[in-house]
Amino acid sequence: MRSRYIAFLLGLCTLPLSLGSIAQKSRAPCARCPRHAHCINATACICDLGFATLSGKNIFSSSSEVCSDVDECTSGQHRCHRSTHCLNKRGSYECHCLNGWVAKAGHENGLITTICEENFFPSWAPPSEIKSQSLSHFFDKVHKLSQDFKPALVQNTIQDLIQGVDELLEAPGDLENLTHPEKHCVATELLSGLENVLRGLSKILPTKSLTLNAPGGTELSLKVQERGVGNVTLSQDNTEMLLDWNTIQESSDSGPSVVGLVSTPGMGKLMAGAALQETHEGLLWGVSPSLLSDIISAFLSKNDTHDLSSPVTFTFSHHPVTPGLGQEIVCAFLEHEKGHCGHWATTGCRTVITRDDSTTCSCTHLSSFAVLMAHYETQEEDPVLTVITYVGLGLSLLCLLLAALTFLLCKAIQNTSTSIHLQLSLCLFLAHLLFLIGINRTEPKMLCSIIAGALHYLYLAAFTWMFLEGLNLFLTARNLMVVNYSSINRFMRKLMFPVGYGIPAVIVAISAVARPRLYGTSARCWLHTDKGFLWTFLGPVCAFISINLVFFLMTIWIVGNKLTSLNKDVSTLKNTRMLTFKAMSQLFILGCTWCLGILQVGPAAQVMTYLFTILSSLQGVFIFLVYCVLSQQVREQYRKWFRGIRTLRAESETYTLSSRVLSDASKPNLVRSSQSTLLTAPLEKKKSQSGNYLTAGKHDCETIFTGSREEDPVLTVITYVGLGLSLLCLLLAAVTFLLGKAIQNTSTSIHLQLSLCLFLAHLLFLTGIHRTEPKVLCSIIAGALHYLYLAAFTWMLLEGLNLFLTVRNLTVVNCSNVSRLMRKLTFPVGYGVPAVIVAISAASRPHLYGTSAR
Predict the structure, then answer these.
(1) From CA 773, how far away is CA 609, in angstroms rounded?
(2) pLDDT bucket at 15, cuts 50 / 70 / 90
(3) Between 681 and 469, whose confidence is greater?
(4) Which end is more exposed in the chain, N or C (fewer Cβ atoms within 10 Å of the end residue's Cβ)?
(5) % pLDDT > 90, the chain
(6) Is the pLDDT of residue 16 over 50?
(7) Which residue in 395, 76, 369 sits closest to 195, CA to CA?
(8) Taking the CA of residue 775 as centre, how many other CA atoms within 13 Å lie in the half-sphere pointing to its CB?
(9) Cα–Cα distance between 715 and 8 in angstroms, integer?
(10) Which helix (H) or strand (E) holds 60?
(11) Could you tell me which of 262, 177, 256 has the C-alpha nearest to residue 222?
């Protein structure tokens, strides 16, 4: 009995095992079922849950069928709540909360049954790698605000958050002991986290504006609006933001549009020493930019604001600052990547205008912004090279002016070649003059850009005319055996003006349209070297020099062949040798010496620099020597002019006005007319000259004597335009007084001396008033300005004296006593009195000539 009971128990124990084996066998894959499928009834297969056959059959017996994963998310078979998004998994799927949403109480994120609600207070955690009690205490406050958050009290929450940030920046505690990189990480986290939290909280604010101010200077400005039209402006104490409502609404998915601006002055202490990571050539590495303004953060309803449809304009107020040599005011933003600390960058931001105490920026994205003073490498100027440049360009200006007048007035040499010489002389004269006047005028920036563009055009035009000089020289040499040169003349006449002024205009126009912001640098009003922009000048110049070298060598070869084929005709041989000498001189005139600028490398760099400076600055002198002094026709014309001038000076000056008055005493109207003419003509002349001077002179005098007045950009432009016009008018007047034989008398002589003194004084003022280095050169310039302006005023005194004596002697028959008196007085007084004053001043106080600013 007992043995049967034991056998029964063993049978009961093995029964479940057998049933389990049978059940497992029915679900186990058959030999013919594919992967992710199992057998049913031992005769067919069915795909596991979450898989399906490609043919769509639920039950199959064919061994060629394959069970593939079903994407419930894309097929719409999922049952995720609308507050979540579906994420497909192999054989299943998950439901995760939307960005900015959190799982509701009692729900877990990532389940099929997950339900979420919008989280208006996004999570904000401290940077894990920073250990700071002050920072931990701040984030404890943030965590408590997040836990106690109620949508109805959103404005109080925002105020508490701004107050907490302000307190942390006012009393950073142990944050001050962190290293600079750690401080930068803290600042980056605070700015990005604060922006993210404020973006979320602002979505449930009522439709209105909100402005909050904390005691430490932290400010918040918010505007929430369902639909806006036009521009929106957010203003704070030191910052103003302007943008288009359309830009705001494009970034908003649904609901009201939000735009916010946060100013955090205390953040500057944490960002001290942050680098400006740019590829600008010349940026001084290892020297951090100086922070000029408050750091501000701007945000919209949506996170993605990297590429806005229209730019946002920021106007920063900051303490008055004037960039020095090697400094530039830039608009920058805080750029940071996930896992990295932030650094300053300028991509997408540009400086619109800079004044002494404010800067306007335009950016195509939103982030945290500030105005910085960037530092660039500067090369210390060699005082010897500076003197050589100014002396050489000064001589070139004089020679180019004389050459241009010669080509213009000497009728005996008027031809196509002379026309090319004249255009080259004019382009070089204007380019050198503008270089001396404006190369260092870096403020205002708009004026600097205009000067850089004008220099770009004038020097390109000069090199284009050098190319035409080379072409004309080659064609002339090639046709030495040809009697008729008309074909060359016709060809050059058609070609020269469109090429000479058209090609530079096209190059400069394309450059200005493509890269307008690269005209003008922080140190010079010239072309930026960024993005190869300098090659818009170097490229054409190198091409013209290369072509001219080819023309030069071919000309030498042609002339050499001509020499070998000549008979022993002395005159012909002599003329050909002169042509050879002039051809060799063309090496300088054609600009080939500019090749020395490329050779300023290696141990011979300094020697090449001096050679390049000397030969290039004296190019105008070579033009005058070759085309004027060495030309027999021009020398003959010079002799005629000098003989005429000596003849005029040898003649005694008499006034015929008194005799006309006596002879026509019976015609009172004529007398009154003569008196009126005599009175108004000098007065109009005086008015014209003083008017030209006073247009810019008032500001100039204040600048000379004070040296510290802040420059008004409008007055600066007026000064330069006015003095430029005065220089042109004074030059024309001086030439008229010098060459007008019919008006040669004592009055004309005084007009001429006054015009020359004012011309030289204004020219030196424009070219040298800002040349404070080297100090010796600055003192010489100051002394020369002192003398020239005193001489100009002395000649104005002589103008008035001459006018008075002339009017007083209207009824006197013989005015020779007036002429004799003025001839004896003019030059000793006009140039002697200023010389005595300047000599005494220089002897007693030589160190007071020249200031640190002027």
Answers:
(1) 19
(2) very low
(3) 469
(4) N
(5) 10
(6) no
(7) 369
(8) 6
(9) 119
(10) strand 59-60
(11) 262
